[in-house]
Specification:
- The protein is α+β, with helices and mostly antiparallel strands.
- About 50% of the residues lie in helices and about 15% in strands.
- The chain has helices spanning about 10-15, 50-75, 75-90; strands at about 20, 25-30, 35.
- Strands 1-2-3 form a 3-stranded antiparallel sheet.
- Helix 2 (about 50-75) runs antiparallel to helix 3.
- About 5% of the residues are buried.
- The structure holds zinc ion.
- Zinc ion binds near residues 28, 30, 31 and 50.
- Pfam families: SBP.
- InterPro entries: SBP-like (IPR044817), SBP_dom (IPR004333), SBP_sf (IPR036893).
- Keywords: Metal-binding, Zinc, Zinc-finger.
- One of its GO terms (cellular component) is nucleus.
Length: about 90
C-alpha cells in the first residue's frame, strides 16, 4: 500500500478536498494525515474525533464551573476547591 501521508505537499495539505484513489479526502491538521470527508464538519481542517476531544474537555470545564457555583451557594468555598482538584485528576 502506498503511504502518501508522509509526503504531503503544501498544496494538498491546504486543499479542501483531495481525491485519493477515487475517494474525496481532506488533510487533517490535527492528525497530520488524510481522512474521508465524512470525518470532517463542513470546512473544518481537523476531524470530528479531535473536535470531540475538545468538546469533552469543554464539558469537563463546564462541570467544574457548575460545581463551583453549587458550592458557593452552600457556602463551602474552601472544600469546593479541594473537590475541583480531585475532579481534575480523574
Ligand atoms: Zn484527524
Amino acid at each position: 500500500m502506498y503511504h502518501f501521508k508522509h509526503r504531503v505537499c503544501e498544496f494538498h495539505s491546504k486543499a479542501p478536498v483531495v481525491i485519493v484513489s477515487g475517494v474525496s479526502k481532506r488533510f487533517c491538521q490535527q492528525c497530520s494525515r488524510f481522512h474521508e470527508l465524512s470525518e470532517f464538519d463542513d470546512v473544518k481542517r481537523s476531524c470530528r474525533k479531535r473536535l470531540a476531544g475538545h468538546n469533552e474537555r469543554r464539558r469537563k470545564a463546564l462541570r467544574l464551573q457548575l460545581m463551583k457555583n453549587h458550592c458557593r451557594k452552600s457556602g463551602e468555598s474552601k472544600s469546593s476547591k479541594k473537590l475541583q482538584q480531585t475532579d481534575l485528576s480523574i
